[in-house]
Every structure is written in structure tokens, then in C-alpha cells.
Task: inverse folding
């Protein structure tokens, strides 16, 4: 884990960096768990609602599948990979603030069965490239 200008970056994760997406992805036993990264959740402010997809929904790389809402804004949630939703974090229905409190843990949003994992991962930032990107994002946010 690296701290960049006060934002946590987990180098083992992958990051979707297109649009205004600040989405992380973690490969677990061939599936991809995903949520909003530390920078994204802090820029949103306190999350008050997360519109979750349904299990079985198809998602596409870099396409919206739901929304996240705070007192400041409503933003789209983008999928880091193409595939099928196999699990949603239903805790977010009652506790949307988990996205703020633990963005890389209890605040995860969806679990996806990827259909094109290797190709999609090549489009995401990882390791040192993710840290460099976060430095650029933090600088723009100042």
C-alpha cells in the first residue's frame, strides 16, 4: 500500500482511469471484485446511496452499471471488466457509507465473472503506473 498525497493506492489492485471513473478491481479466484477507490470516495464526500445492479446482469468494460450518490454529486459506476455480476454488496443498501469507511474492504460494490479478463486487465493501471496516475489526479484536485 502506498500513500499518495493522503490517498491510499493498493499496488496489487487494478484501476479503471477513464471518464471520471475511480474504480478498483481485484482478481480473486478468476472473478473480479470492484469498488470505488480512496480518491474517488473522498472526492464524492459522504456516500448516501449506491444503486446496485442485479445478480446476473451483464456488464461491459468501461460502461456504467449503476450510480453512487453523495450530498455533492451523483456519479456513474463503471465496470472495470466485461462479464456477469455474480454478487452484489447488499450491505450498501443499509450502510452506503461503507464505501467511505472501507473502500477497499467492506465497501466493495460488485463481484463479476469476467468474460475477457486478460484483455480487460491490459486496459487497467496496476502497480507503479497506478501510483503515478494517482499523483497526477491528486495534483489536479489541489
Result:
Amino acid at each position: 500500500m502506498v500513500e499518495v498525497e493522503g490517498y491510499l493506492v493498493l499496488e496489487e489492485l487494478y484501476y479503471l482511469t477513464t471518464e471520471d471513473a475511480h474504480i478498483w478491481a481485484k482478481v480473486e479466484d478468476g472473478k473480479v471484485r470492484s469498488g470505488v477507490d480512496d480518491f474517488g470516495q473522498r472526492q464524492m464526500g459522504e456516500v448516501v446511496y449506491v444503486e446496485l445492479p442485479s445478480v446476473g446482469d451483464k456488464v461491459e468494460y468501461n460502461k456504467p452499471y449503476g450510480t453512487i450518490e453523495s450530498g455533492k454529486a451523483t456519479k456513474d459506476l463503471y465496470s472495470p471488466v466485461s462479464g456477469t455480476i455474480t454478487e452484489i454488496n447488499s450491505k450498501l443498501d443499509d450502510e452506503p457509507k461503507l464505501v467511505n469507511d472501507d473502500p477497499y474492504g467492506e465497501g466493495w460494490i460488485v463481484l463479476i465473472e469476467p468474460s475477457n479478463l486478460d484483455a480487460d486487465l491490459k486496459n487497467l493501471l496496476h502497480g507503479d503506473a497506478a501510483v503515478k496516475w494517482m499523483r497526477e489526479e491528486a495534483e489536479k484536485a489541489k
Summary: The first strand starts at residue 2 and ends at 4. Residues 128-141 form the longest helix (14 residues). Residues 23 and 77 are 8 Å apart (CA to CA).
